[in-house]
Structures are given as structure tokens and as C-alpha cells.
């Protein structure tokens, strides 16, 4: 059974590699910078979508761990290639864990043993896998989980160190797979847990590289040349333009004034570091790179989060209003879609902020 599975996997890898290379050649830019003439025909008609929303709900975070001893935890991740809207009228074929971007938030305790089942959906066209930065072992489990469409694999690992870690696809053309949406967070809580807060939210930033400009209607094909040049069409939080904002496809995340919101943020990249900033506030407490072995920094305005890393940061507002969470490389916000909003609701406090003093 195992040998059969492995053989099928290798066959699929061969096919996947050739298909990907062909895609690479056909979408390479020409000498004058225009797209090659054999690039896929452009159309202003979006493709039918497989899902209404590719954007994971930022409030979809598992509860804090309420155990004082290690346990065995069963986790299933399923890779799914799905067509969805980046914004209205613009479709893209995403690659996902469990059908949304970022992948599901996995929460375990230091010392836990994770029994992972990784499934590659039958309808997929490519091999996929998972590399967990929380795994102490070769490839973070990538080779052990490499599967062809229709197959599954199992991996057992112990979470030996605490922190918030990225997981991501790491097959051939891994930059393409991460760009298409294959990344997420696994949080390994320290034995003593984390300080209690009022809200926890989950955001993931990444870049889409397509054969059109941001906002051009129709189906956007993945574009290898743009990715090689690190010139993304979109830079997104949770996979859609302005995914969780009142101005976008909304709604904003809401919290009461003076309530503490903890943000788990992952930069999937694959190429751009994020300068993560809450407009109108600062990060009250911030754990650089998601490290929970060190004391948090305090009152941080902007924190760089490299691709392949995370941060854990808290914010609170004494006054009501909308607080935009952005990459402070602001062209990515104004032109490429990268923003989420936390709306603080409560009483005005003019002694702290008065927009109309008499
Ligand atoms: Cu993949």
C-alpha cells in the first residue's frame, strides 16, 4: 500500500513539474517587458467560482488550550485548488489548505504530539505537502506529506518549542504554491499558556502574481515572470482585496473600546516582508517573529514581519473608530488591496481624542 502510494506520488510529481515548467515558459515576459504572445488568452469574463469567499474569517481562532499536561492531537489538513474572487469581477485559481486563505489556525500545547493527516483532494491538479516551522525534523515534514491528487499521508510530530509558526506548501515551485495561498499558522502555546485577552484574530498576508493589472476584470492566470521579478499584482490580507473592511467585502472585526485584541499575523510572502502597523494605534505588546520564549516588546508602531514568519501583537483603543491594520509599504494598501479593519465601539472620550474641539 505504502509503495503504491509513493509510486503514484512520484508519477504525479513528474507530471506536476513538467506542467509547471511549461507554464513558466509560456508566461515569461518578452524583452520589452510585455507578456509573451503565447500567454493564456485574456478574457474579461470571470470564471465560475468554487466558493463564495476565499478569505478566512479572522475571528475563526480556536479557543486557548485549557490543559496542564500534554496530549495527542489529531489534525487533518486538506489541500484544495479552488477558483474564487480576489475582488468583484476578478477570479483566480487559488491553492489552499481547507479551502480558504490563510489555512486553518492550528493550536496545540508545547509537548503535545500531533497526529497529522494530510489530504490532497482528488480534483486537484498538482502535488502538495506541508512544511511546519514548528516541526523539529527534516523539511518540517514536507517530504513525509508530499502527496499526489487523491492521496493522503500521515505525519506524527511532537511540538517541542513554543511560539507562533508558519506552515506552508514546499513542493517544487513552492513560491507559486505559497503565492496561490498555501500557508497558515500553527500556534504552540507554552505550558503556562498565554495571558487572557478579550479577542483573538488571525490575519495572513501574501502576494498574488497574475497576468493582468489589479482590478482588471476577468480571470487572472498565475504569472511566473511577475513572481520572478517580485512584482505582485495584489498584496492581500486573508486572500482578498480589503477582505475584512467595511469598504471591501467586510465586515470589520469589532471590539469594545478598552478591550484587548490579540492579532496573530503570518506573512506567507513568498517574497515581500510586511511592515505591520495599526493606523491610529500602536502594538501594545508584541512578540517579534512569534517567539513566546522572550518578553514582548511594548508600544511598537510598525514591526517588520519577514516572509516565512509571524508576529503576535495586541492592540486596544480607548476611543471608538476604525483602525486599519496595514503593511506600511503603503502602495500595497492603496493599490494592491492589503488591509484589514478592527472597529472599536464605545463611548467617545474627548479628553483623549477630540476631532472637533470648540
Ligand atoms: Cu502545494
UniProtKB/TrEMBL annotation:
Write out the entry's keywords from A to Z.
Copper, Metal-binding, Oxidoreductase, Repeat
Q: Which InterPro entries match?
A: Cu-oxidase-like_N (IPR011707), Cu-oxidase_fam (IPR045087), Cupredoxin (IPR008972), NO2-reductase_Cu (IPR001287), TAT_signal (IPR006311)
Q: Which cofactor does it need?
A: Cu(2+); Cu(+)
Q: Which residues bind Cu cation?
A: 128, 133, 168-169, 177, 182, 328
EC number from the UniProt entry: 1.7.2.1
Q: Where is this region: Disordered?
A: 21-69
The reaction(s) catalysed by this protein are: nitric oxide + Fe(III)-[cytochrome c] + H2O = Fe(II)-[cytochrome c] + nitrite + 2 H(+)
Q: Does the keyword Metal-binding apply?
A: yes
User: Per its UniProt entry, what is the enzyme's top EC class, as one word?
Assistant: oxidoreductase
Residue ranges occupied by any Plastocyanin-like domain in the UniProt entry: 85-192
Point to the regions of Low complexity compositional bias. 36-49
The Gene Ontology terms for molecular function here are:
metal ion binding; nitrite reductase (NO-forming) activity
* NCBIfam families (UniProt xref): Cu_nitrite_red
User: Do you know which PANTHER family this protein is assigned to?
Assistant: FI03373P-RELATED (PTHR11709:SF394), MULTI-COPPER OXIDASE (PTHR11709)
Q: How the protein assembles, per its UniProt entry?
A: Homotrimer.
Q: What is this protein called?
A: Copper-containing nitrite reductase
Q: Which taxonomic lineage does the organism of this UniProt entry have?
A: Archaea, Methanobacteriati, Methanobacteriota, Stenosarchaea group, Halobacteria
Q: Which gene encodes it?
A: nirK
Amino acid at each position: 500500500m505504502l509503495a503504491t502510494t509513493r509510486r503514484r506520488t512520484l508519477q504525479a510529481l513528474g507530471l506536476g513539474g513538467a506542467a509547471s515548467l511549461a507554464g513558466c515558459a509560456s508566461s515569461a515576459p518578452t524583452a520589452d517587458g510585455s507578456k509573451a504572445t503565447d500567454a493564456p488568452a485574456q478574457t474579461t469574463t470571470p470564471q465560475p467560482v468554487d466558493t463564495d469567499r476565499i478569505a478566512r474569517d479572522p475571528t475563526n481562532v480556536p479557543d486557548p488550550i485549557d490543559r496542564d499536561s500534554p496530549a495527542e492531537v489529531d489534525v487533518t489538513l486538506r489541500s484544495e485548488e479552488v477558483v474564487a474572487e480576489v475582488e468583484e469581477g476578478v477570479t483566480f485559481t487559488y491553492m489552499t489548505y481547507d479551502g480558504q486563505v490563510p489555512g486553518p489556525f492550528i493550536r496545540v500545547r508545547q509537548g503535545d504530539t500531533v497526529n497529522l493527516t494530510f489530504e490532497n483532494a482528488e480534483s486537484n491538479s498538482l502535488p502538495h505537502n506541508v512544511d511546519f516551522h514548528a516541526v523539529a525534523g527534516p523539511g518540517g515534514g514536507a517530504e513525509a506529506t508530499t502527496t499526489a491528487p487523491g492521496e493522503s499521508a500521515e505525519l506524527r510530530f511532537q511540538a517541542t518549542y513554543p511560539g507562533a509558526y508558519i506552515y506552508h506548501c514546499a513542493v517544487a515551485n513552492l513560491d507559486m504554491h505559497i503565492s496561490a495561498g498555501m500557508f497558515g499558522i500553527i500556534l504552540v502555546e507554552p505550558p503556562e499558556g498565554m495571558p487572557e485577552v478579550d479577542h483573538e484574530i488571525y490575519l495572513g498576508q501574501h502576494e498574488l502574481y497574475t497576468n493582468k493589472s489589479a482590478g482588471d476584470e476577468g480571470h487572472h492566470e498565475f504569472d511566473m515572470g511577475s513572481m520572478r521579478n517580485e512584482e505582485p499584482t495584489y498584496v492581500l490580507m486573508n486572500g482578498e482585496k480589503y477582505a475584512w473592511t467595511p469598504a471591501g467585502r467586510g465586515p470589520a472585526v469589532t471590539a469594545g473600546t478598552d478591550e484587548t485584541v490579540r492579532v496573530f499575523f503570518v506573512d506567507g510572502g513568498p517574497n515581500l516582508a510586511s511592515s505591520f502597523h495599526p493606523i491610529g494605534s500602536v502594538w501594545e505588546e508584541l512578540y517579534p517573529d512569534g517567539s513566546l520564549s522572550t518578553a514582548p516588546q511594548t508600544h511598537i508602531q510598525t514591526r517588520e514581519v519577514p516572509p516565512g514568519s509571524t508576529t503576535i501583537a495586541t492592540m486596544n483603543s480607548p476611543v471608538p473608530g476604525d483602525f486599519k491594520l496595514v503593511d506600511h509599504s503603503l502602495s500595497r494598501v492603496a493599490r494592491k488591496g492589503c488591509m484589514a479593519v478592527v472597529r472599536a465601539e464605545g463611548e467617545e472620550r474627548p479628553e483623549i481624542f477630540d476631532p472637533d474641539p470648540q
